[in-house]
Design brief:
The chain has 122 residues and is of the alpha+beta class. It contains 3 helices and 5 strands. A hairpin with a 5-residue loop joins strand 2 and strand 3.
Length: 122
């Protein structure tokens, strides 16, 4: 049986993200998430949503800033841009080390620097 709800995760000191998600309820009653997440987490909170079901359309993620709102907004813009460009290249057949992927390195470095700045690590 599929249970629909929100997978809540934290990108430490930067933002919380709520992602509409489905998990499997095993006959034993255990809830099992068989989908890999965007970020690696030790724990993820799942909140069941009795009012929404999946109808074949992606539900936008909800994000909530934990740091300076302007910096977090810029971080999310860069992260989304980098992620979208990377996946388009991979879908087109690019492999690690390809020049097109290597060209993303400056944006990746900017994301990493901004992440450290928001977390107060620099």
């Amino acid at each position: 049986m599929i249970i629909y709800g929100w997978s809540i995760s934290e990108y430490t000191k930067i933002f919380l993200q709520a992602q509409f998600h489905g998990i499997w309820k095993a006959p034993s009653g255990n809830l099992v998430d068989i989908t890999p997440g965007e970020f690696s987490h030790d724990k993820v909170l799942f909140l069941e949503d009795h009012h929404r079901i999946y109808i074949g359309e992606q539900v936008p993620h909800q994000r909530f800033s934990l740091g300076d709102p302007e910096k977090v907004e810029h971080f999310l813009f860069l992260l989304d841009s980098l992620t979208n460009r990377f996946y388009k290249l991979v879908e087109a057949g690019a492999k690690p080390g390809d020049p097109a992927i290597c060209a993303l390195r400056p944006m990746f470095n900017e994301v990493q620097l901004l992440k450290k700045e928001i977390r107060g690590e620099v």
